[in-house]
Amino acid sequence: MTNHWIDLKNSDVILVMGSNAASNHPISFKWVNKAKENGAKLISVDPRFTQTSTQADIYAPLRGGTDIAFLGGMIKYILDNNLYFREYMVNYTNASFIVSKKFEFKDGLFSGYKENEPGSAYRGKYDKSYWAFERDKDGNPKKDPSLSNSRCVFQLLKKHYSRYTLDKVSDVTGTPKDKLLEVYKTYAATGKPDKSATIMYAMGWTQHTVGVQNIRCMAMIQLLLGNIGVAGGGVNALRGESNVQGSTDHCLLWHILPGYLQVPKSNLPTLKAYNEAYTPHSNDPKSANWWQNYPKYSVSLLRAMYPNTDHNLSYTWLPKADTGKTYTWLQLFDAMDKGEFKGFFAWGQNPACSGANSNKTRRAMTRLDWMVNVNIFDNETGSFWRGPGMNPKEIKTEVFFLPCCTSIEKEGSITNSGRWMQWRTAGPKPLGLTKSDGHIICELAQKIKDKYRKEGGLFSDPILNLDIAAWQDGHGFSAENTAKLINGYFLKDTTIKGKTYKKGTLVPSFAFLQDDGSTNSGNWLYCNSFTEKGNMAARMDKTQTPAQARIGLYPNWAWCWPVNRRIIYNRASVDLNGKPYAPEKAVIAWNAAAKKWEGDVPDGGWAPGTKYAFIMRKEGFGQIFGPGRADGPFPEHYEPMECPVDKNPFSKRLRSPVAMQFSVEEKAVCDPRYPFVCSTYRVTEHWQTGLMTRHTPWLLEAQPQMFCEMSKELAKLRGIKNGDKVILESVRGKLWAVALVTARFKPFKVMGSTVHQVGVPWHFGWQFPEDGSGGDAANLLTPSVGDPNTGIPETKAFMVNVRKAKEGELNA
Q1: How far is Cα of residue 331 from the mean position of the Cα atoms in its chain?
Q2: 244 to each of 163, 239, 522, how far by Cα in Å?
Q3: Beta-bridge mates of residue 711
Q4: Which end of the chain is more exposed for a tag (fewer CB within 10 A), N or C?
Q5: What number of other Cβ atoms are within 10 A of residue 177's Cβ?
Q6: Contacts of 80 (CB under 8 A, 6+ apart)
Q7: What average pLDDT does the chain have?
Q8: Where is the Molybdopterin oxidoreductase domain (predicted)?
């Protein structure tokens, strides 16, 4: 999230799309309701009339998987009606940048496209050099502030979305034209200095083969309207778990190290080569180009891991990804299915239910020699070998279970959706022999070190030299000591700007980190979270200045990365003189007399007009044209990899040309066997794969089993009554569900045909309830296809058949 939960109350318009926030993020709705009390408009765009829709001023239905068509139409509406915030757009976005003549878009393809070799997980790839900016003699992008040059981003944007007419958008999405116009008019009205709008989205946007571009498209709208960096604005992701943001910050994903540093590649054998590859250089004196500090952060991370080893050497110990290869979830399980893994740690997860194409995931685990399941309960993953269709006598996988304690039984921090790091003290002691994840990791690391020390082994240096003592105290794992290490220390007496910091002193902020090995930090973004003043994340002080109180910054409650900044990109909330565009809800303001910023921590403390606002970008501007994405610099509507239509009215290319897929796996496109669109979603009563909530009697009573939500029209078409048992089938598998016949779904009119959509929750599995009455995982139906940037699977739009179960067909 660029903003934070409380800031929702400052919005004039709130768009909830790709989310059912009222049901699945109910705390967010406290602040949505505050905004509504202040006169804000709430818009719900969803294939289904949800709990959020009941609270909305405007509800617009759309067919699953057509979000970019919907948003592309909004971009055209904004441009055609001159509703963009021009001053903001010229000063703070790359709308004025001139793009190379090599860039073009034709027949659904951007320039630079090439088909991949057979067997690749990606259908094709782009040479992004075709999307470069023209440069002046100093190497800086050429600009046209008048926005009249035919090859400036603004003009290319107009050309690209000129195809997204109201008629075409309505035809593709199934959204009535009057609803499109109502949404567009309401949202675009915030393209004024004193207005702001925000987007609240969740997995309904991300879990698509165009998931990244869904979010990019909305970010572009926010830049056009001047809604980034301002109170009540931003692009705000609603996380499905309290520490998703924190886990990502600390490198849960395969391609990043802590603080969003890049995983080393095999073609970067030295630290010097690595830092040069990922450190951007700008010759523009007004570009802060904050990533120029990359070597300070990478060296400090290495020193946190290996404090007694030269960082140039310890870099050679880091695992390297093969150049040109990716290691996403879908690819790992595909490799496992091919027998390319001997072992697997399933830590705090349940992939037998949570992973797309669950039959493939479960089959893949039968190819292993061993698996370790670390969890608070046994689950479908730990017991996959005795699940449906499995014969334990034929499965070689040896499974070990390490029992964890629960979150309330351990000390530590979570970083919530708003980037707030909040400290949690331990409650009751862990039950029985259960231990915290930190204790398990420390003990496991120590046993591995002892084994290597005793028996030797290949490439032992990175294991034997890893400093696990810094994670512990006299009683084992220490969350506090680890938090201090994540913040970072001075490793020797260091003088910075005339002040000397003694060895062992906690580094006060990431601006003090060094690239010579004199500092360490486990995550540069969290440097400032635990200082000599104490644990910033544990603060519970509600005091604010009057300016901060107007929008509710609460700077002394917990801690927010980076450096306690509550709204990032906030230099874009003021004009070039430092005057807030919206004085009544100012985020920051320049005090000329005192020569300092007031309000939030500014996104860089320089005087107004001296640096560009988007300091993390090499060029310093928000990216309407985004040349770094794998699937194009502008979002383009492509159908899901499984879809009910065979034409794309916007271009000749039906589906994403660079999406992740596995060629041996069949897809259902206009397949009469699977005529209905399906989506998975959450319900309030259950959480994730239901591992905890299905074991809670009152929650199970409220939502006891798998259901399939469908329209009255589809139920009539298939002779299904409310409460009937039905069978859902896809190319990959089938499951049973109880029919929930409702008016919340309506048929869509799409390109002259009627398209029905159904929905199923993803919280169930075969293991519990033990009598099998709960059903099984929704992911038995979902495809192994993913976004080319992230690999996230497309579980929100795929094709199924729904029919009434035959007598005797079900065991439950």
Answers
A1: 18
A2: 37, 6, 18
A3: 742
A4: C
A5: 13
A6: none
A7: 96
A8: 2-378
Q: How far is CA 457 from CA 182, 342, 452, 463, 682, in A?
A: 67, 18, 6, 10, 46
Report the DSSP pairing between strands 105-106 and 58-60.
unpaired
Here the tokens at position 193 are: 């200095």
Structural domain spans, the chain? 5-108+133-242, 676-804
Cβ contact 584:39 at 8 Å: no
- Looking at this protein, which amino acid is placed at residue 669? V
Token pair listed for 25: 């993020």
Class of domain 5-108+133-242: alpha beta
CA 486/CA 496 separation, integer angstroms: 21
Residue 368 has pLDDT above 60, yes or no: yes
In this prediction, residue 812 has a pLDDT band, given cuts at 50, 70 and 90, of very low
- The partner residues of 401 in beta bridges, in order of sequence, read 373
The sign of the dihedral angle between the CA atoms of 419, 420, 425, 431 is: negative
191-206 tens-digit pLDDT: 999 999 999 999 999 9
SS3 of 410-431: CCEEEECCCCEEEEECCCCCCC
What residues are paired with 739 via a beta bridge?
708
Full-prediction pTM beyond 0.90?
Answer: yes
CA distance 610 to 586: 20
Both structure tokens of 195: 């207005």
Mean pLDDT, residues 480-494 taken together: 97
Class of domain 676-804: mainly beta
Half-sphere exposure of 253 (CA within 13 A, CB side): 17
Per-residue pLDDT at 808 exceeds 80 = no
Q: Is the peptide bond before 633 cis (omega within 30 degrees of 0)?
A: no
Residue 195's pLDDT is 98
State mean pLDDT over 310-337. Answer: 96
Q: How much is the average pLDDT of 38-53? A: 97
Query: HSE (CB half, 13 Å, CA atoms) of 690?
Result: 33
CA angle 35-38-42, nearest 5°? 45
Buried b (16+ CB within 10 A) or exposed e, 510-540: bbbbbbebbbbbbbbbbbbbbbeeebbbbbe
Residues 6+ apart with CB under 8 A from 808: none
CB 104 within 8 A of CB 111: yes
- H/E stretch holding 364 reads helix 358-365
Task: List, in sequence order, every residue forming a beta bridge with 420; answer none if it has no partner.
Answer: 560
Q: CA torsion 598→601→603→608, rounded to 10°?
A: 10
Backbone angles phi, psi at 197, to 5 degrees: -135, 155
What is the spatial distance between Cα 707 and Cα 269, in angstroms, rounded to a whole number? 52
- Among residues 393, 347, 291, which one has the least CA distance to residue 614? 291
On the question of a cis peptide bond just before residue 508, with omega within 30 degrees of 0, the verdict is no
| Distance, CA of 726 to chain centre | 33
Q: Which amino acid is at 414?
A: I
Strand-pairing partners, residue 660, are 122, 786
Percentage with pLDDT > 70 across the chain: 100
CB 234 within 8 A of CB 2: yes
Written as one string, the DSSP assignment of 532-558 is TTEEGGG-B-----HHHHHHT--TTBS
User: Do residues 766 and 387 touch, judged by C-beta distance below 8 A?
Assistant: yes
515-535 mean pLDDT: 98
* Residues comprising the chain, all counted: 812
| DSSP run (H or E) holding 178 | helix 177-188
Element (H, E) at 88: helix 86-92
Look up residue 801 and give its amino acid.
N
pLDDT the model gives residue 811: 53
Confidence of residue 119 (pLDDT cuts 50, 70, 90): confident
- Cβ-in-10-Å burial (0-12, 13-18, 19+) of 57 comes to middle
| Calpha distance 47→12 (Å, rounded) | 24
Instruction: Note the helical H segments in 409-471.
Output: 437-455, 461-464
